[in-house]
Amino acid sequence: MPRSIPRYLFEIAERLPDKTAIVSRAGSITFADLCRDALANAEFLRELGIRPGDRVGVCMEKSIDQASAILGILCANAVIVPILPRLKKINIEHIITNSGMAALVTDDGRLDQVEAFADKTKLIVGRGKVEQDWPNLAYVRRHIQAKPFFERIGADNAAIIYSSGSTGRPKGILIPHRNLADGAEIVAQYLGTREDDRICCVLSFNFDYGLNQLWQCLLKGATLYLHDFALPNDLFTLLAEESLTALPVMPVVVTQMFDRRLYRPNPSHDFSALRYVCSTGGRLSEHMIEELRTAFPTSKIYSMFGLTEAFRSTFLEPDKLRVRPTSIGKAIPGVQVLVLDDEGKECAPNELGELVHRGACVSKGYWKDPKNTDRVFRTHPDYPGETLVFSGDCVYRDDEGYIYFHSRRDEMIKTQGFRISPTEIEAEVVKHPEISAAVAFGIPNIAVGDDIICAYTAAGEDAPVERTLRQYLKNQLPRHMVPTYLVPFEEFPITGNEGKIDRKTVKDAALDRLGLNAEQSKVDLARL
């Protein structure tokens, strides 16, 4: 039988029907009931006219209902398009329009936010009490007979995950069923995921990393504990009281966990059941590693590295963390990681080159974006007939083959687990009536990845005061995209005859005003 997430769901429901699949504050659900709900959701979607290959969005808070909606879409042979609930309307509209979304599943908390798009796509309430005005999965699945799904093959489309790009608008990464299955099996292999695992899910289902926790549970029969991170002690209490065995995080989550203003260690907490902590979305600092070791002395710590275009590229074995804390490790199973120079040749040890991914989990490219697809998804003469992912990450290998991240080849900003194009921020800044131009860039901050700096010039004689501009941006942008520093300029220098803003000079001047200079920034980046 083909390997796919619906197949994993169907098989685990037969093998472990009464075992708890997901636990949340609202309750829990067994694998049999999760499968039944997903198949009923799928049948309802088909009755609404959703056809194989149609794109169906999911804009919901993390919940059992969100999980069953996602699985229902896959069982209906449609394509999931996760939408982060806190995105602004303009970004939600772009994703709906760009994906050609046939329907959008939401919940009561987001219905007011997406109601404006009812003329663009079919709205379905996946969680809540609305039963009259909008189709409601939670209501109708009690009245629909679940039917088996029709198996799709591994090459069929399964998801479009939107990630920021250099064009200033999120790009949709097209992922087939095979990739979801490969990602689940590969990660379960090197983490050693087991049937008796109890996985803590602090991550969102709107990205590949969070979704992979759900896939692993379906593959191995582990139980997923959903947790909405608010206060550190709530998370530590959950880990101890439920004897959780796995904690997937990102560096920004680790920073929040050990926030000295809020974190209060409880000597009575027993974390001996916690087998491992794993992290991706940025490099763990040595301080973060020490915090994790102190809190969870018996746990293994896995440092991982990847990009949505290929899901996961490398991981560092826990026993190597002490001697190479800054390394991103070596290739995951089923993958080869190349470090290539500008001529496409393999770099010598300690020579900077671009990280290129070949093998498992290579996605199909960017949805409706052939230009960027051709730029990132390319062939190589040494691997005829294959598509490789050219990541844009500058890395190097040491003499033993361990890889170290150095910098981005382009200007992408990576912060709090998000990749952001400066253009996205600049476009919102210049919408302010008193701003004429803006230049955004990132500087390294190990706690979050990058801090965002935005330089700007006024449209009139006076620029808006920083407090006013910051509040404006908080209203227009997701929280993770609001600049850390705002730096006013009287005017921006331009380059030669091109008449373009000299971004490098602006960046150097802004860093100087903040007490840094370009060379210090490079040193900090090289140290990451």
What's this model, at a glance?
With 528 residues, the protein is α/β, with parallel strands linked by helices. It has 16 helices and 28 strands.
In terms of topology, how is this protein built?
Elements: H1 5-15, E1 20-24, E2 27-30, H2 31-47, E3 55-59, H3 64-75, E4 79-82, H4 89-99, E5 103-107, H5 108-114, E6 122-127, H6 137-140, E7 157-163, E8 171-176, H7 177-191, E9 198-201, H8 208-220, E10 223-226, H9 232-241, E11 246-249, H10 251-257, E12 276-279, H11 286-295, E13 300-305, E14 314-316, E15 330-331, E16 335-340, E17 353-359, E18 365-366, H12 370-376, E19 377-378, E20 388-397, E21 403-408, E22 413-415, E23 418-420, H13 422-429, E24 435-445, E25 449-458, H14 466-476, E26 485-489, E27 494-495, E28 500-501, H15 503-513, H16 518-527
Parallel strand pairs: 1-10, 3-4, 3-5, 5-6, 9-10, 11-12, 12-13, 25-26
Antiparallel strand pairs: 1-2, 7-8, 8-18, 13-14, 14-15, 16-17, 17-20, 19-20, 20-21, 22-23, 24-25, 27-28
Helix pairs in contact: 1-2, 1-8, 2-3, 7-8
